[in-house]
Every structure is written in C-alpha cells, then in structure tokens.
Amino acid sequence: VHLPEEPLLKFKLLSKQKYLKESTLHVAIYDEKGDKTIHHFNNHQFNFRKEYTLNLNKFSNKTVKLVFSNSIHNNPNFVVSFIDHTIFCPTKKKLPGILQIRGEEISKQRIIVQQNNKKRPHVFIYLIDTLRADHLSCYGYFRKTSPFIDHFSKKSTLFKNCFATASWTKPSIGSILTGLYPGKHQAEDREDKLSTEVDMLSEVLKSYGYTTIYLTPNINASRDVNFDQGNDIYTFSKAGNNSKYFYHSSKIINSEFFEIIKNSPHLTDKPLCVFLHTIDPHDPYTPKAPFLKFKKFDKEREKLGISDYIQLKKKEKGLDQEDISYIKSLYDCEILHNDHYFGKFIDFLKENHL
After folding, report:
1. Rounded mean pLDDT for each run of 10 residues along the chain, 354 residues in total
2. pTM for this predicted structure
C-alpha cells in the first residue's frame, strides 16, 4: 500500500476462539529498502471491542508491505481476524487501506459513467465453482484443460496473485459480490444468510441504471441465503433442481441466459450486470463424452469420482498414487467440459454485440 503524509493505521481484532493465554500478535511494516517496524500485541492488550491505531509516520509517502501474523508460540487453534483495516492521514481523508486503489480516480470514473449512458460497459461475472487455478493451462498446468479460457486470458488481464476469502461457496461468493470479508457480510457458516444491510454489486450498479441478472444452480448462493438482492431477473437454474444435471451445469446455465436475452431483446437497451454461476468441476467427478480426453478406462477405479467412495477407500485401504492420478484426471475432464461452455458463452456475447 502507498502511504500518505503522516499516516495512521486503524484496525480491530476479532476472534471466535478464546485461546488468549500467552498469545501474541505482530503487525510488521516493511518498506522497499527493507526497513521495518514491528508492533507486538500480547494477551494483556487484546480487546476485541477496541480500535487500535498505529502511527506510521516513519513511512510517510512510501510504498510499504503490511503483515499481520500470529506468533509461532501461540496455541495452534488460536485464530484472529483483522477487520476494518483502514489507513488515515491527518485530514481524516479515508483511504482504502490494505486493498488500496486510487480513491479519487474511482470517484471520477463514477461521475463520468453517471453523465454518459452510452459509455457504460456491460459487466459479466462468469463463476466456475471449485476451479483450481493450478489446473488451468494458462497458469502452467501440464494438461490443456482450458483452451477457451487460455485464449480469453491472452487478450485480458490474468491475475497471478488472487486469493479466496474462504474455502467454500457461500462466504467466498458473498465476498466477490459485496467486496467484504465474510465477517462483515455475515454469510460464513452453513446456517448463515447474507446480511441485507450490505450493498451488493447488483444493487450499486442498478442504482446507476443497469439491468441486473443472476443465475445460479447452487443453494449456497441462492435467494434462500439472500444472494438475490438488487437483481431484476433471478433464476435458480433447473440444473440446481435436478441432481443429475447439477454437476454439469454450464450448458444449462448458458442456455437459460441465452433464452433470457433472446426473449427480451429490450434488456440490452440498458447496460447489463450479469452473474452466471457454473459448477462442473465440483464433486462428484462424473465427466461425460465428448469431454473424456484425460480419463483412462479403469474398471477398478470407476467409482473414484464419488466423494463418499473416495473417503471410504481412504479409510479402509488408503489412496495410492494411481488412485489420486485417476481422480485428478476426472476433475480435469470436468474443467474441460466447463471451459467448452465458457467458450460458447463468449461466442454468444460477440454474436449479440455484448
């Protein structure tokens, strides 16, 4: 983050665990020359209702790296979240902190967009659930699992340092669509729902005159958990209503979106914000022809695409390297399937001047 003149770092701590005894946290600030300042917080200072302020004057007008870390001596179950981390300068002008971008430029862009309807771009989020970056050939994977994504990436921005906010669907997609950590948008656990108090991307863009469309086959990102906020058209895909098609959803999601546009061509008179959620690479791994390029016939391992069977074999006999390779080959076939329909989606956008 690039710091302003006489910067202050403010943040709060949050923990659901109570392993405070003999625990220490560190905040380290490094500049480009390697100079650093480390602030320690031991268990006597922990207060989860307090806002901490650190003076970073030493690093005024410098680009620095901020690192929040647990001490290696802490209880391994002690987990702390840093929330509301923000950088201030003496004028109290709020900067976006750790995720800093140029706030002034964003404001100017909003004004330009508001004044000129014709220049508003369409916004499409095409989400492939449970897709590993290291199994895409554009990220160096040895198999050609993603020819259409690869082709798209060559004409686009390919992010090489991108991290999920959580390890599963609901909190991760909640963060994508709100720009908030799970602790703020509140869709963290199985029974949680997204807070209706937060602003979703669809709601923000709708206020700027966008038509908003949302398609998902996954109950964890559906209306049931408040993910439909701000959408003019919401579809819980028929892929989600039929377990047979749930894990081969890309073809169905595409067709449902194409149908919406073809049946209501007036929708494109306004800029579009469209979220499409596909889930082919999710288990069970049951690829279908003609996307079996990486699968080798092996009758003994045929059931290894089903997670319950994987866990059973793991418990009884363990999984050998051939088992793991076979499972990966099934997963890669599922990626190939989803990638094919991503290509069809891009073709549709081009054909319809979107």
Report:
1. 84 66 76 79 60 82 84 72 73 44 40 53 96 95 97 94 90 95 90 91 92 95 94 93 86 96 92 96 92 88 88 90 94 97 97 94
2. 0.68
Peptide bond into 147 cis (omega under 30): no
Q: Are 85 and 10 in contact (CB under 8 A)?
A: yes
Residue type, 182: P
Between the alpha carbon of residue 42 and those of residues 14, 21, 24, the distances in Å are: 15, 9, 4
In the numeric block, which tokens belong to residue 23?
């625990």
Could you write out the three-class secondary structure of 27-50? EEEEECCCCEEEEEEECCCCCCCC
Residue at 105: amino acid letter: E
**Half-sphere exposure of residue 292, counting CA atoms within 13 Å on the CB side?**
9
DSSP class of residue 248 equals: T
In one-letter notation, the amino acid at residue 86 is: T
Compute how many other C-beta atoms are within 10 angstroms of the C-beta atom of residue 286: 14
CA distance 187 to 185: 6
Q: For residues 150 and 76, give the distance between their C-alpha atoms in angstroms, rounded to a whole number.
A: 40
State the residue for tokens 């895909």.
237
Measured CA to CA in angstroms, residue 12 lies from 84, 92, 130 at distances of: 6, 18, 31
- CA–CA gap between residue 196 and residue 278 (Å, rounded): 24
Helix (H), strand (E) at residue 176: helix 169-178
